[in-house]
Amino acid sequence: MTEQRITARKNPLLQQVRKLLTSRKAREKAGLFVADGTKLLQEAVSWYPGLDTVILSDGVEAELPEHVRLIRVPEDVMESISPMQTPQGALFLCRLPEKKAFTPQAGMLVLDGIQDPGNLGTILRTADALDVPVALLEGCADPYSHKVVRASMGAVFRRQPVQTTWQELQAGCKNAGVPIGVTALSDRAEDIRGANLSRMAVVIGSEGQGVRKEILDSADAELIIPMNPRCESLNAAVAATIVMWQMMNK
C-alpha cells in the first residue's frame, strides 16, 4: 500500500474531491465518486472492488486492501473537504461501476424521477435488505452522490442499481412478458393487497409529481396503497417499502 501525506488545501487531489462531491458531470467524466465516514469505508472495503483512494485524518486508522492508495491529512484539511459538519476523519474515492444492461425481472422496483437523495438512498437500502432489484429511470438523483451513498448505508457497494430509460424498460418488459404496474391515486387503481406484485415491475413516482403521465397511460395496471382517506399521499421511500414488502409476500 502506498501512503502519502498532504497538508496543502489546494492540492490537486483535494480539489478534485471537492468537484466530485458537488458535480454529477465531474463524477461521470472522472469515473469516480466520493463517500465519507468510517462505517461506509468499512462497507466499501468489505463489498466494493472499486475502492481506489482513502483519505484519513491524522489519528484515524482503517484496515485497507493492498491496492488502495492512502492519503494522510491534518484534521483542518479534512474539515476543508468533508461534506459533513462533524467529519469522522475518512473520505474515500471509488471507481464508478461499469454500466449494466437493463434486464427486466418480475418483482422489480422501478423509480421514476426520485430526486431526493435521502429517499433514493433509503429505497436502495431497503431493496438491498429485501433482495429486490431496482431500476432507475430518467430524472432520479445520482445513486453515487455522497448523500445517496450515505443514506443507503453502503447498499450501493453491495448491489449496484441499474439505470435505464422508460423506452428501454417498456420494450424489455414487453418482450419478457413482465407486466408493468404503477402506483397511482385513481378510482380504477387496484388495492396492492389483492395484486400479485411479485410478477410485475412496479413503478414508484417522484415525490411531487408521482408517476409520469406517459408511463401511467401505457402501464398494464394501476395500483394503490390503501390509507386513511384524509391522507393525500405517502413519502416516496415509505411507499416503495410497502410495495417491496408486498412483493415479498405474494
Helix content: 25-40%
SS-derived structural category: alpha/beta
Please, how many helices? 10
- The residue ranges in which pLDDT falls below 50 over 5 or more consecutive positions are none
Please give the largest β-sheet.
7 strands, parallel
The count of strands amounts to: 12
The helix/strand series, from N terminus to C terminus, equals EHHEHEEHEEHEHHEHEEEHEH
Sheet with the most strands: spatial strand order? 8-7-6-11-9-12-10
Q: Can you give the mean pLDDT?
A: 94
- Give the termini distance in whole angstroms: 49 Å
Proportion of residues in β-strands: 15-25%
Shape: elongated
State Rg.
20 Å
Describe the structure in your own words:
Helix 1 (12-22) packs across helix 2 and helix 5 (117-130) runs parallel beside helix 10 (236-248). The radius of gyration is 20 Å and the shape is elongated. The longest helix is centred in the middle third of the chain and has 14 residues, at 117-130. Strands 8-7-6-11-9-12-10 form a seven-stranded parallel beta sheet, with helices on one face. Strands 1-4-3-5-2 form a five-stranded mixed beta sheet, with helices on both faces. The chain is of the alpha/beta class and 250 residues long. Helices cover 36% and strands 20% of the residues. The model has no long low-confidence stretch (mean pLDDT 94).
